[in-house]
Amino acid sequence: MDDLYRELILDHYQHPHNHGEIPGADISVEDSNPLCGDKIRIDLKLQGDTVVDVKFNGKGCAISQASASMLTDEIIGKTLDEIKTLDKQFVLEMLGIPLGPSRIKCALLPLKVIKVGVYGVGANPDEDEDES
Ligand code: ZN
User: Fold this and answer.
1) Most buried residue among 26, 113, 116, 123 by CB atoms closer than 10 A?
2) Ligand 1 center–CA 14 separation, angstroms
3) Average pLDDT over residues 29-36
4) How far, in Å, from the CA of 125 to the mean position of ligand 1?
5) Considering its fold, how many domains does the chain have in total?
6) Is 53 helix (H, G, I), strand (E, B) or coil?
7) 81 falls within a domain
8) What is the CATH number of the domain that holds 44?
9) pLDDT tens across 85-128, in order?
């Protein structure tokens, strides 16, 4: 375990970036992880194909909230196509610490929510339960 990354995660958890809501957001999606009780709602503001603003709201464990905070930092300025290329690996590298299977669901919840929004509700080709 890398203390530096653990501190980074705690810092994002305690002082989340891009926290809040966007009135009149172009995309607004929320989902939860019933196994852990995490909830994430993401609002995206688009200009053409590019994300110009993003806010998240949620509650749950440190991993899910830190992942949302970091991920929202990452996607500002990206196009929808660029966001579609982000995957599980990207999130795990972003968090930087090894996670067990149940924690991985927490870590991936924000990306899942964002992708549902980007692809349109109910059409997420990356939806995978447990491929390990
Ligand atoms: Zn969790």
Assistant:
1) 113
2) 15
3) 95
4) 23
5) 1
6) strand
7) yes
8) 3.90.1010.10
9) 999 999 999 999 999 999 999 999 999 999 999 998 444 455 45
